[in-house]
Amino acid sequence: MLDANQIAERYIATWNERDPRKRAELLQENWIGESCYVDPIAKAVGREDIGRLIGGVQQRFPGFGFTLKGTPDGYGECVRFSWCLGPSGVEAPIEGSDVLVMSEGRIARVIGFLDKVPAPA
Predict the structure, then answer these.
(1) H-helix or E-strand spanning residue 78
(2) Are 32 and 45 in contact (CB under 8 A)?
(3) Which of 4, 19, 77, 85 could bond 72 through an S-S bridge, CB–CB 3.0 to 4.6 Å?
(4) Residue 58 lies in a domain
């Protein structure tokens, strides 16, 4: 049985892991080798590519972290949840929602949506 909350928490932990080796371990444990990530501004295929994408987001937004927003849910092989990205202790300037497609208990595909982004300066 799918535990949407546990899957979402592991996913967020991967995006927050700043040590590349530990992040690679989380990707190895929780994502299939041919996993695919896509959102309106990025696409990555395979754990290494996804790991580089995560590292790039962390560099672009130093001091920011991901948190879950609301309660994850899911059915079949799909998990859906919302998240926030921002510095601790203030309202997050970025929010999104992701849909994960699971395969044998690991993430096979992520389809990401940006729900709130700051206006360009």
Answers:
(1) strand 78-86
(2) no
(3) 4
(4) yes
Residue 96 is predicted with a pLDDT of: 98
Asked if residue 34 has pLDDT above 80, the reply is yes
- CATH of residue 55's domain is 3.10.450.50
Residue 62: inside a domain: yes
Strand partners, 79: 74, 100
Query: Do 90 and 116 touch, CB atoms closer than 8 A?
Result: no
> pLDDT at position 119, please?
82
Average pLDDT over residues 50-56: 98
pLDDT given at position 111: 98
Secondary structure class of 3 (helix, strand, coil):
coil
pLDDT tens for 79-116 read 999 999 999 999 999 999 999 999 999 999 999 999 99
Rounded to 5°, the CA angle 79-81-85 comes to: 140
In a domain, 121, yes or no: no
Angle at CA 61, nearest 5°, toward 115 and 32?
70
Domain tally, the chain? 1
Query: Which helix or strand (DSSP H or E) is residue 51 part of?
Result: helix 47-60
